Amino acid sequence: MLRPCESDDIYLAATTLVRSEVLRMQHLTILLEYGAKERPPDARVMREERDARLWDDALDRMTTTLRQKGIVE
C-alpha cells in the first residue's frame, strides 16, 4: 500500500539528489516555480516547452528515490 506523498518527501528527495549531483539547480528552479503555481509546465505552450522537459527529467530522476520510500509505484 502506498503512503501519501508529503511536501517534505519531495524536498528531501530533491535536496539529496542535488547533493549527489543527480539533479541540477535548473531542475529545482522549475520544480519550485511550477510547484508554486500548483501545476506542471505545459509542453504545448512554446515558452514552457523547455520547462516541461526539465520537469519530466526531474520527476523521472526522483521516482527511484520516492519508489524506495514506498510513495510511488
Question: Can you put this structure into words, describing what you see?
Answer:
The protein is built from 3 helices and no strands. It is globular and about 35 Å long. The chain has helices at residues 7-19, 25-37, 49-68. Helix 1 packs across helix 3 (49-68) and helix 2 (25-37) packs across helix 3. The chain is mostly helical. The model has no long low-confidence stretch (mean pLDDT 89).
Query: What's the SSE pattern?
Result: HHH
Shape: globular
Helix vs. strand class = mainly alpha
Number of strands: 0
Beta fraction = under 5%
Number of helices: 3
Mean pLDDT reading: 89
Whole-angstrom Rg:
12 Å
Task: Report how far apart the termini are.
Answer: 9 Å
Helix content: 55-70%
Q: Specify the biggest β-sheet.
A: none
Low-confidence parts lasting 5 or more residues at pLDDT below 50?
A: none
Q: What labels would you give this structure?
A:
63% helix, globular, 73 residues, 0% strand, 3 helices, mainly alpha
Describe the structure concisely for a colleague:
The protein is mostly helical. It has helices at 7-19, 25-37, 49-68.
Secondary structure blueprint with pairings:
Layout: H1 7-19, H2 25-37, H3 49-68
Helix pairs in contact: 1-3, 2-3
